[in-house]
Amino acid sequence: MKRIFNLRLEEFLALLFFIPSLLITIKANLYFIEMGMNIPRRYYGGLTRLAVTLALMIAFYYFVKYRPLWKYTWWLREVMPFLFCIAIYTNMHDTIGFVNPHDVHDTLIRIEEWLFGVQPVLWAQQFYHPWLTDYFSISYMNYFIIAVVVVLYLLIKNRPLEMRKVLIGTILSFYFGYFLYILFPAAPPRLTLAAEFTRDFSGGFITHMQNKLINLNPSSSRAAFPSLHCAVTLISLMYAFKYSKKLFFVLLVPGISLVLATVYLRHHYVVDIIAGFALAIFTYFVAPHIDNWWNNLRRKYATVDDRLLQLQEQEFTPHDTFVGSNT
Question: Are 106 and 36 in contact (CB under 8 A)?
Fold first, then answer.
């Protein structure tokens, strides 16, 4: 119990999800070996990614325990769990089909038809234009920039408590999304409706590079519902609105463009977006309670000092900081 609660919530979750992610990735590789097939790049690459993640976790444990150059590097403890989360997310995204084979995308397609009388991704074909395709390709790739820019803003402004609240909300959005991926595996419309598209994209270098990344092994993708692109974008906008109205308005147009890009580029159904928004709103309000519950347990069981707990127990002012802390 003491070893567990010496970890922060996001650190514990990284360990908790790393193990099933590793086992599922191994299962995916064994499947292709048993079938006598070449292992697709994203599966054997997943093992490499997880090996690197494990090595970083071990180094991270050493860093947190012994705090070398802690005066200058305290912020690594805040951001590294997010990187672990992304590595686990990528592996889970690629291997959902090896966990739950009961796809739900046919149901999602019927819901779209019932709601709109048409498939939005097919309806959007009338707007295809090379410049618009490149614009939405850039917008879609802005995903990870939007996910971290609020955190970076608060880090630069030396507001560590607010920064961690954003990190916790973002990380929990990912982990909640993983569970929903497993419960509701769904292939994206670019695969399920491929035969019904009557127009192809035409764009420049950016669109071409994005399509190469997406098409590494598209048949394995079962991570459409909910749209974590939309969930993380919305929760980032919510935190930006809370902590910096100026930053919110800077991110608003890129955020809206990213949401539209998920349909235009055939990555998501509209119901995926609705589910992603619901997930973001749920996580935004639930994350502080989960974190407080965990920190209360840490105060009871933890055996090491954590500056985070000390800051939470006192009235925080702009002059309080992790910098220079030896604990």
Answer: no
